[in-house]
Design a protein that fits this description.
Layout lengths: L2 E7 L8 E6 L2 E5 L8 H5 L14 E3 L5 H4 L2 H6 L6 E3 L1 H28 L13 H8 L2 E3 L6 E2 L5 E6 L7 E7 L2 E5 L22 E5 L12 H14 L3 E5 L5 H14 L8 E4 L1 H12 L8 H9 L2 E2 L3 H9 L4 E5 L9 H8 L6 E4 L8 H6 L4 E4 L2 E4 L3 E4 L9 H8 L8 E5 L3 H15 L3 E2 L6 E3 L2
Length: 454
């Protein structure tokens, strides 16, 4: 039986993950994400896939982030009706993310039609809430460590990846061959999420390379966060943290709670201004088995913040000049309520804009982290005089050393290692290290390139 893997996304970029696994008469899609970042990448979401969605037997999700799930409603809109396999907590989180994405797609189309700034007449959403709801009907939960028979004789096994709530590596057994997809690999020794579990064997390994060319500083993440907050508050300023609503927001709350338990931060108020982050934080305590926190610690973590649920309260928060911490989406400052806070607080040197996760090329977050001090928000040029801080130690992605550590768990080298989900420099750096330190031959696919599993 010939087995091939084709990257329809997530090749040469960290977004749009879609990896097509063809085997005999079977066809699976591993992850089904949206492209994000530059306009050229975002426009890829509107291009038809090179395959008919109706020919896909099933989709396997490694985790719920938009760059791994956000294309699902479009796939369903275009005819896909197969099962979507994911861990139970990934399903719950994905429902939040996809409904939010559908709402934004419809809102963008509405505004484009109202103000006439689209060349399409009328402008249409990529998908809508109805498509998201249809997608939910196809979800099939698969527990960790329990093999599941799926499409056309294939077998699926999820292991914990430690990236966000419910994140998994996906082992797919086809006959005698074992193909493993890393998804996004999390951090070792994270205080909230479990360590990435080792994979004992794989004939073919498809591995991410987000931080393939970097190593995180060996620092106490909570202490580093506390230092930023305390020096900002001493200046009389506000800390605005663009944070991914799922994963980062909850980890930040835990670190802030642990700092306060240690007698730091004083009485500085903490706000979470993101409806999706609020809902995702609720899920943290509902899925107690998927993280390290005790029930009491989880409840205390969730209770440390004031939750801002409506737009009017968010506007009042932007007008509030008292020192505080605001955690708000989106994590790369590409949209959402955090843009209003950056506009409100970014011009004052007393304040801080703090980034706590990966910033993709073409995003405002990437521009600010790299030193740009003027960004466009809502059609205006905004001069940033606030401190801009970047704490990669808070990232949920394994760095290059941690990726090598996770891959080193295999008892013998895979016959084929495919490096995806990384910008070109990161993927090339990881390839070099894997070949030099592990002695494994690697390939970095181009978008649409078909690779045969040997």
């Amino acid at each position: 039986m010939t087995i091939t893997i084709t990257s329809l996304g997530g090749a040469g970029t960290v977004t749009g993950s879609k990896h097509l696994l063809d085997f005999g008469s079977g066809r699976l899609l591993i992850d089904c994400g949206l492209f994000q970042g530059t306009k050229a990448l975002r426009e890829l979401n509107w291009q038809a896939l090179p395959i008919d969605p109706r020919t896909v037997d099933g989709v396997v999700l490694t985790h719920a982030h938009l760059d791994h799930t956000g294309y699902l409603p479009r796939l369903v809109k275009n005819g896909f009706r197969g099962p979507i396999y994911a861990t139970p907590s990934t399903i719950d989180v994905a429902k939040l993310i996809l409904l939010d994405s559908a709402f934004l797609q419809e809102k963008d189309a509405e505004l484009a039609n109202r103000y006439g700034y689209s060349r399409h007449k009328p402008a249409l959403p990529l998908y809508g809430k109805h498509d998201a709801q249809q997608t939910f009907e196809l979800f099939q939960p698969v527990d960790f460590h329990r093999p599941k028979a799926i499409a056309r004789g294939a077998e699926l096994l999820f292991r914990r990846a430690g990236h966000i709530l419910g994140a998994a590596t996906a082992e797919i057994r086809v006959g005698e061959r074992v193909i493993v997809f890393s998804g996004d690999v999390g951090r070792f020794n994270d205080p909230v999420l479990p360590d990435p579990e080792p994979v004992p064997a794989a004939d073919c390994l498809v591995v991410e390379s987000t931080y393939g060319n970097r190593t995180h500083d060996v620092v106490d993440a909570a202490a580093a966060l506390g230092a930023v907050v305390e020096r900002t508050v001493q200046r009389g300023g506000t800390v605005v943290i663009p944070a991914f609503a799922v994963g980062r927001a909850q980890s930040l709350l835990y670190h802030l709670w642990s700092l306060r338990e240690a007698g730091r931060l004083g009485l500085v108020p903490i706000f979470v201004d993101s409806p999706m982050a609020i809902n995702a934080t609720d899920l943290l305590c509902r899925h107690q088995d998927d993280h390290k926190l005790t029930g009491d610690a989880c409840a205390a973590t969730c209770n440390i913040a004031t939750y801002v649920r409506d737009a009017e309260s968010s506007k009042k928060l932007s007008r509030n000049g008292m020192p505080k911490v605001i955690i708000s989406a989106s994590g790369m400052a590409t949209g959402g309520r955090v843009l209003h806070h950056i506009k409100a607080f970014g011009g004052d040197p007393a304040n801080t804009v703090l980034f706590s996760g990966f910033q993709a090329v073409g995003t405002r977050g990437r521009a600010l982290v790299e030193g740009e001090r003027e960004v466009r928000i809502h059609g205006e040029s905004i001069r940033i005089r606030a401190e801009v801080a970047d704490l990669p130690a808070l990232s949920a992605h394994a760095d290059a050393n941690e990726l090598l550590r996770w891959m080193g768990g295999l008892r013998q080298p895979p016959s084929r290692t495919i490096i995806v989900h990384g910008e070109p420099d990161a993927a090339a750096a990881l390839q070099s290290r894997v070949e030099r330190e592990l002695g494994w031959p690697c390939v970095i696919p181009e978008q649409g390139q078909r690779i045969t599993v040997e």
